[in-house]
Amino acid sequence: MESSSSLKNRSEGDLYPVDLPVLHYSELNTGCEEYLSSVKSDGAMPFTLPHGEKVQVTRKNIGRLPFLREDMSRFILALHTPEDETQVVAVYLQGKWWPIGDVLKTSDKCRHGLVLVESVMERVVLFLLSQVIFGILERPLKDDLYFSTYSLWEHGKILWHNGEAVGFYTIKKRGSLCDGYTGQSYQLPVLDTVFVRSHWRRTGLALQMLEDFCLSQPTEGILGISFPMSTGMYGVCKKYLETHEEERDRLYEVEAPGEWTQRRNVWLNIQLQKLPQDCQRSACGDAEQSPHTFSHETRKPDLEEEGTLQQCGSLVNPKYLSASVKKRPADQIDTKTNCKKAMT
């Protein structure tokens, strides 16, 4: 696993936003007000999407996406289609519009695997993955919870594969504040959120992130996973603990701040079948079985199949989101991204 500060030797060709040298968060808003003024005075201008469709750029279909939890004055301009304010197709960075898909790409061949989020633009990628890609596009239909925006000090890693950001995970470090109200701090490192984009699920990437989390904390005797664990997360933990017996006494499902009375051993829960109801009733072939009784010939439910791998810690109630948010049509998945409207 590499730190972004060690990434060098960029490949030839066009650079994407994450490859550009943005040194401070204030640079994200540089020139935005002037640009909005020019749009208002000059009228509509077309923006061409990668598949050839043109979207008219007007003040009516430009919104602001709050970017940092600590500073709501920091925002990213987002472009949505005139007919649907939930269809975000591009964001304004470095003085130009970028299609959502391009912001999640890199031309740096050294940016591969799990990379620590350090730079400003890497936090933009993390923001888009959690708020736009998962927040609307790939959130399970039955799921009414969302990731909240991350703190500037949130510790996270982005999973890069073939030049594209395909997932991420974040953790709460020991000693970090649980929230901004109680003054309580976490008593142990906690795996807080995990996500793999739909196209790359069922390829072992979630298992890779869980293993990376465990290996990155070699001196910690106990590790946490935020309560409540999802069905998919239990499936991944089961796979991991079946082959890593030494970790069975180390992984706990925990509620903040993680006192002993707030911890439940994950492996013990699996053995006692203390799992989410849908996990216990997961279908496999023509039979319904508990995920920890499947034979090797049957398909086990895993984290990648669930969409949201782990969505326990950083969540926001849907009542704070626009009522107009909805799923994007399947035939538009490669061209547009849904998001709540950010008012200008």
Automatic annotation (TrEMBL):
InterPro entries per the UniProt record, alphabetical: FAM169 (IPR029625)
Region described as Disordered: spans on this chain: 282-306
Domain of life: Eukaryota
PANTHER family, sorted: PROTEIN FAM169BP, PTHR22442
Protein name per UniProt: Protein FAM169B
